[in-house]
Amino acid sequence: MFENLQDKLDSAFKTLKGQGKITEINVAATIKEIRRALVDADVNYKIAKEFTDKVKEEAMGQNVLTAVSPSQLMVKIVNDELIKLMGGSVSEINLKGNPTIILIAGLQGSGKTTFTHKLAHFLKTKKGKNPLMVACDIYRPAAIDQLIVLGKAIDIPVYSEIENKNAVQIAKNALEHAKVHGYNTIIIDTAGRLAIDEEMMKEIEQVKKAVNPNETLFVVDSMTGQDAVNTAKTFNDRLDFDGVVLTKLDGDTRGGAALTIKYTVNKPIKFVSMGEKVDTLDVFHPDRMSQRILGMGDIVSFVEKAQEHFDEKKAAELQKKISKNQFDFNDFLNQLNQIKKMGNVKDLLGMIPGVGKAIKDIDIDDKSFSKIEAIILSMTPKERGNPDLMNGIRRKRIADGSGNSIQDVNNFLKQFEDMKKMMKTMQGMQGKGRGMKLPF
């Protein structure tokens, strides 16, 4: 995510390295490179120019402290301005109303149906809501079936009327159904439409008027860049939506939509979606996004994800095993599965400050764990619980059973032992009050 923009901004800041202070002369080259990086990221030139003018104005008024280099100061200024550009602070979804009515709108193929099911899961698991999804896409073949299948996967019901081709009436009927059956939140998935299709635009205006939603969200495919921003403006003129959802941020996106959509339509980005899995929906934090763009990591989001997926009771039990040097392959496999639940591995590592740049050219995905899983699963239950049993004969059998070489097995076993020593050391430091708690 934003790797190209990150690289170009990093290169721009390097022009100030070795400088003793910020001057109008030495900052000019940096500002020019920042502007070029933004335009290459599909940011409108006018917005890029206005942004860099603000950065320059702020930089020229700063005194560089002895402990801070000009390049470090410039990173801070750009970070602050990026946060402002993307909205400044978190904008929460409006959940007032009984039931809360959320209307989903957007272009064809922007990811509305997938977002609807992710949002329903988010509201059920994190906000304690009892949601009902409503299938109002009466045009796309199999759209209703898709939502029903997604609903079954997360145990959330879908209201649909297969024979009814009136989206306004379906939405009104769904609202009555929700009231009768006690659903406190309804999420209405509508058909994708083009801003130039007057009949379709009138339809969604009528749906909005009929149900009077508490929240209207416009879903944008972030991979369409500046085109997405322009489309959002056209839709906002007609719908006056409350917030934006950026989808497909895990794709080959240049970042222009994320950076400038708030500036253009004056409506906040409320959610970002990365990946197909149901739990890859995040509340949008301008400050965290800015830090990631600048390669500063996002440790807060990393910790939040870890807290969501790690069981405190199990963590306490695990720490006891580590203190007694009883950490085994079963424990390792459990931890591996917990990490996989947190999301894309490379994206997770990119949240750790300093790691993102180090691994940007390394291909890391969930399949990277397959070899390790195969090795552990090829062990007998007794071997998994007793790492000390690993002699040459057992290693050969495990290598053959897992489809790996003996060298692969030996490498994993060495890494496992190194990790056990590291965890033991960390816990020793923790016990003496000299370190942090173990992150699991």
Q: What report would you give on this structure?
A:
By secondary structure, the chain is of the alpha/beta class. It has 3 domains: 3-85, Up-down Bundle (Four Helix Bundle (Hemerythrin (Met), subunit A)), CATH 1.20.120; 100-296, P-loop containing nucleotide triphosphate hydrolases (Rossmann fold, 3-Layer(aba) Sandwich), CATH 3.40.50; 302-431, Orthogonal Bundle (434 Repressor (Amino-terminal Domain)). 55% of the residues lie in helices and 9% in strands. The chain has helices at residues 3-14, 24-40, 45-60, 70-85, 112-126, 143-153, 167-181, 198-211, 226-239, 256-265, 286-293, 299-309, 312-323, 329-341, 345-350, 355-358, 370-377, 381-385, 392-402, 406-431; strands at residues 100-106, 131-136, 158-159, 185-190, 215-221, 243-247, 269-273, 281-283. Strands 3-2-4-1-5-6-7-8 form an 8-stranded mixed beta sheet, with helices on both faces. Strand 7 (269-273) and strand 8 (281-283) form a beta hairpin. The protein is flat. The protein starts with a helix and ends in a 9-residue tail after the last helix. The model is unreliable at 432-440 (pLDDT under 50).
Blueprint (SSEs and pairs):
Blueprint: H1 3-14, H2 24-40, H3 45-60, H4 70-85, E1 100-106, H5 112-126, E2 131-136, H6 143-153, E3 158-159, H7 167-181, E4 185-190, H8 198-211, E5 215-221, H9 226-239, E6 243-247, H10 256-265, E7 269-273, E8 281-283, H11 286-293, H12 299-309, H13 312-323, H14 329-341, H15 345-350, H16 355-358, H17 370-377, H18 381-385, H19 392-402, H20 406-431
Parallel strand pairs: 1-4, 1-5, 2-3, 2-4, 5-6, 6-7
Antiparallel strand pairs: 7-8
Helix pairs in contact: 1-2, 2-3, 3-4, 4-11, 5-6, 7-8, 9-10, 17-19, 19-20
